[in-house]
Amino acid sequence: MTKQTKVFYNRTIDKKQIKQIMSWAFNDFGTMKASYLADKIKDIGFKYSTKAGLSINIEDLKVPPIKKHVIKYANRKVIDAEIEVERGKITEVERFQKVIKTWNNTSETLKDQVISYFRKTDPLNSIYIMAFSGARGNISQVRQLIGMRGLMADPNGQIINLPIITNFREGLTITDYIISSYGARKGLVDTALRTADSGYLTRRLIDVAQDMITREKNCNTKNGINLSKVVDANRTIITLKDRIVGRVLAFPIDNKKINQRIANSDQAITPKLAQQISDLNLKRVIVRSPLTCSSSRSICQQCYGWNLAYGNLIDLGEAVGIIAAQSIGEPGTQLTMRTFHTGGVFTAEPSRQIRAQYSGKILFSKNLKTRITKTQYGEMSSISENEANLILITYENVRTKVTIFPNTLIFIRNKSFVKKNEIILEVISNTTKSGGEQAFKYIYAKHSGEIFLQNSKLPQLNSSFKSKLKNKTQCLLWILSGELYTIPLQSRIEVKVNSFISKNRSLAQSKVINIREGHINSLINIQKDGLKVSWNCKSLKNINIFIERNPLGFNQCIIYGLNNRRIVLKTLNPVINKNYFEIGDLFNIKYRTKIGGTFYSTNFNHEKDQQKIKIKTVGGTIFYIPEATYKIDKNIGPLYVKSGEYIKVNQELFKNNFVNISGIVEIIRKKRILNEILIKPGQIISLNKNKLLKAHHQKIMYPGEILTNEIIIKRLSYTELITIKKQTFLGIYPIIRYEITNSLNELNYFSSNSFNKIKDLKLSSLEVKFKTTQKIKSYLPIQIIKQKIYATSIAAIKQSTMKFNFLRENQKLKLNIHYFENILIDQVMPTELKKEDMNIKFLVQNKQFIEPYTNLISFTIQIKQRKNLINIKEQFINNQRKILLISTDDYKTIYIEQPNLFYKKNKLETLGGKGKNNLCFKNSGFITSIYGNQIKLYKGDPYLFSEGAQIKKRPGDLINKGEKLGQLIYERVRTEDIIQGLPKVEEILEARKPKIESCLAVRPGIVLDLKYKSSELYIWIAPNNYELSQKDFYKINYSQRVLLGQFDFINVGHPLNDDPINSHTLLNTYFSYYQSLQVFSDYKSAYRSFRKIQSMLLNSVQAVYYSQGVFISDKHIEIIIKQMTGKVQIITSGDSPLLSDELVELKQVYYINNCLKQKKHALFKPIILGITKASLKTNSFISAASFQHTTKILTEAAIRGKTDWLRGLKENVIVGRLIPAGTGFNTYNDLSYVEVKIPSLLTTKTNSISSNSTASQVKYKKLKNRIKFKFIKNN
Fold first, then answer.
1. Is 475 labelled as part of a ligand binding site?
2. What number of helices (H) and strands (E) belong to the chain?
3. Is 293 assigned to a binding site?
């Protein structure tokens, strides 16, 4: 370097300052000198690194002594927060927020103390040198080593409110280790799994932007975008100066104070110019942008701006799309392991508190507007509504000015005195922007008792009101002490007021009685299960009853009657229905077939009951075509018959299997495997004898009809053509007809009218086992009609059972039907008693005869502890009966030194509340009486409910310990890392539709009214005060958080609730609004809608990366968004060559509609394409096929005859050509830019085209005018 450029730094330089030095050298002195400086710095580093090294031992981990005092102070603040909750001063949520704030600030304070301790005592400490020089590690890891680990986050990102106050030097306890294992495991899993997601995001970004290349110098557009500083909760994340460096101005900028132009349009913004613009205090600057570039399929140099690698305008042929994709994807890849490095430590930013730099007096500016509010920590404070100033006047009369931003908490009063380092302001962090979410905190009763209301603003409603109350104001609920019992409604209370009650004494008694007379049966264990009462017995004598084995191998009890009637009893598992007790089934053998077949029914009104059909009419007709089916599911050996052969009854079909019907055999094979054998009764006729028989295919033939001279139909039959061994036959199959009649006296067909003596036995309707046209495949007999026999006498008795007994009398079986009533303890015991201490006593014995309404069992509720009963309160609600016992244990007597009148009766006092005599109550409660120097306090616990809380109980309700009292609604802060950010980035760039989307305003207006009705919120919005009749109506869910208030002004697309915004819906809302104005054309409406969406997408993506401290240049994200928002969908093609639902560029539709002039234009709507869909909808089918759905895309391209112009990088790489970027940029451009070298022979004086001869000059001009070559003459 020259003498004029030498700069001397006499300070310790860390990694960040080395970066600043290199940036200064690069920008001011160029690449060569910056490289020389970098080599010299490298030489110095290697020189001294070989002379000395760093060693680490456990003694280097020095814990600052001040840690004990810091932790002690934090514990005291946490205990104070607990006491405030017990006093009812703050809610449980406010205590939680206060604890989180306390430990978060403690961790940050301890971190600062660690740094200060190292600097003062051991500046050459190995840990300090490595962490703070930037060589290895960071401050977060050093804090965990020798400070405290602090608050941890669970795998869902929620804060665990129990901090780890130890560090790795001191060692973790078992509890600390378990708490920290959540985050540690999350880091390991994320490292293994989420890295692939980040890489896949990079791949999609590159695929969507790979054809974006700078092909022009200037597109000459007049459009641009507004850039301003990024602010979050009054904190500037990135300044306007840093944001506009490297961009090109779209419009000139003037200094109006001195009437001087600072910069012209199309001028690149250097750091020096950016500083001048920043000094003007401009809020926004309009710059050229890739989003507004009018170049077709590319971006021009001016709209892109600088190449940030070397600080000059981007070169022509630069692959800016690849650079943009890598710039967005690389931070996600690198920061995926951030959670792994920090071990799951809660990383939310601490509250930014502003402390007084000096002691002195505070003066507020006159324009400051404030309002009283309650902070999220339960503290009353003032909050600023506008931007103003605060002046601190020291004792030396030095004035210090402090800016107060809007929504800043003010903890001091005007003209008050403050001490040095006292907190005066706190900037509220906007949790909704930094990842906050709506959460619920359920409040449970600590003790049982009666609910009492202190705040009269909560309405005193009846206890029968069942819906929950949305608390609109802050209120304080009390639970006054007592012991609660839940007893049955009909039970009898056995204790009295003002009596002494011993332990296990009976409080209430409930009894179980029977309805019918009967005997106590001893088949059930009485003490364990319950009772079994036999109350009825029916005897059936002189009937034909037998025990037989059915075809399935089970024994069944069959009663035979006259005229083919039979009853099959359900002896094993009688069916119990709500209305009847099923005993068995009654059959008529006349309605039984020999084999299966196809059934048809007529003249029935059918009612479907699962697979069966009930017949409601008196009768009907059933037609049946018999057909035996043998299903073959195993190797059965050789068959003894062939297909088409006629088989007779009892002839062997295959080994040990004989048929029970004659007919024609048909063998069915599937995939050459024997599957079924069919036997169809009837006969077959060959068509070779008479081909006229083909006309009788699938017909019904009646008796007497003549088929041929030889064949006359003798019975109702069905005919159809069949093929056997490639020969055609006509099959004639009989149709069997059943006439069904429904008789109510079917039980009379059994001997001695036994069943008619039993009056409670009834028959059901006739049931058909099939559906019409149903084919039943079987070779066994089928009972097609049956009736159920059921008893109605015990239908109304729960837990009834039935038992059959068979006795032999005079060589005949006698049937006894016994009815039992089961009285089980678990079922007859009231639900309320299962949760209470009780005593069960049985009042009957086995085999005892009992009369109706006899007391069988008694349940006695026992009192848990001995007490002196003062009062009993009772409540009936929701079919429950609650009893609250109030005893002397629920009262406390407080003695004071002197009688006074400062305390009043019927007043509530809280824990720690000091009276006029500095009397401090150790219990909260209700003052019931005052006698002299005695104060009688009825114990109670206060519960504070904030605004918006849901209270599930009412004043006067009796509540049990642990029962839910209500729930608080609050904003929960979540720890943020790139893991939670990457899915959000992917969701935005893929333009995914959320499951529940926010309701959007369709046009600007003023909120007139908000009304809560049941579970919904109704909002009325008018365009302005003069058009109230044209107001819009919106309906949103009651549980969603509303983002507006009455008389607020909202713009088009403004979200009404805090659900995620659907970008597709927002785009359609903007487009519909601009069209409704009837000012803009469809092209202008779509263009403006796209600009709105592009701005929203840009801010959304940047917000994720800004929250991680990652700063990506806006131009990179703008290139990706440009690819997502450039196409429209054709609605109607009009007279254009476009097709409906086709996706085309917005500019292309604009040009086509302009060419149509007076003809019918194409109608379209703008759409957003996710990066995956945009990659597949590109003009290059080769590029799309190399990404996804290769076969589909290539097939579609071949069918449509598409042409790929090879404009991008991927398609040229695939076909093996030089890519059109970098040195290959000019290779495939138009002929007007191709350099042509003319041979040297033509450039001589005698043979040159440019000679003085007239003919040569004419040829030269013609050639030059027709073909625009760049001639380069070779010497």
1. no
2. 22, 77
3. yes
